[in-house]
Design brief:
By secondary structure, this protein is mainly α. It has one domain: Four Helix Bundle (Hemerythrin (Met), subunit A) (Up-down Bundle). 78% of the residues lie in helices and 0% in strands. It is built from 4 helices and no strands. The protein has helices at 22-56, 62-94, 99-128, 135-171. α1 packs antiparallel against α4 and α3 packs antiparallel against α4. It is elongated, with a radius of gyration of 19 Å. The structure holds fe (ii) ion (FE2). The site of fe (ii) ion has 5 residues, from α3 and α4.
Length: 172
């Protein structure tokens, strides 16, 4: 875990602040807000996927299925691009001891991207009436995706964002 920043660094360690260049430290607030925005969008995406999964048991909402099938891959790609371009490099700089955790999140991104593409295709096929999955299997696939994604973004919100906030407070 990150050492507390207030009150100085442990003996023999440089302060966390010194790991960031001044422009990078000034950029932290923008990156944190951007990450929280991406998290809110993914939470909304999960809520909509859950609605689609709930409606599969009854009369499927074709327009909702098609809309989310179109939006899903791009929403996932946008969130990953933002994190991998802006969040991970800053996090790596301020928490070099968390490299394994970051690698795990990166692998989850790879798996989620593949899963999102398969899910979008399954939703399109379902609406077109050529789906290989029955309603129960498609619902299971939907729930597997959004439940995993909710765990992923909860970790980022509860673990990564506080580390970046702590770093920002130290930079003020
Ligand atoms: Fe992520």
């Amino acid at each position: 875990m990150n050492e507390p920043i207030e009150g100085g660094s442990p003996p023999g360690e440089s302060s966390s602040l010194s790991r960031l260049s001044t422009p990078a430290a000034a950029n932290l607030g923008v990156v944190i807000e951007g990450m929280l925005h991406q998290i809110r969008l993914l939470e909304l995406l999960c809520d909509n996927l859950e609605l689609v999964a709930d409606e599969l048991a009854g009369e499927a909402n074709r327009q909702a299925c098609l809309h989310i099938a179109r939006a899903l891959p791009a929403a996932i790609a946008d969130a990953h691009r933002f994190e991998e371009t802006h969040v991970f490099p800053l996090w790596k700089t301020v928490s070099p001891d968390q490299e394994q955790t970051m690698a795990r999140l990166w692998l989850e991104h790879v798996a989620d991207k593949s899963y999102a593409d398969e899910l979008a295709e399954a939703l399109r096929d379902h609406v077109a009436g050529r789906g290989r999955l029955d309603t129960e299997a498609l619902g299971y696939m939907l729930r597997g995706f959004f439940e995993g994604l909710r765990r992923h973004i909860a970790f980022e919100r509860d673990h990564v964002v506080p580390i970046l906030r702590q770093e920002m407070r130290a930079a003020l």
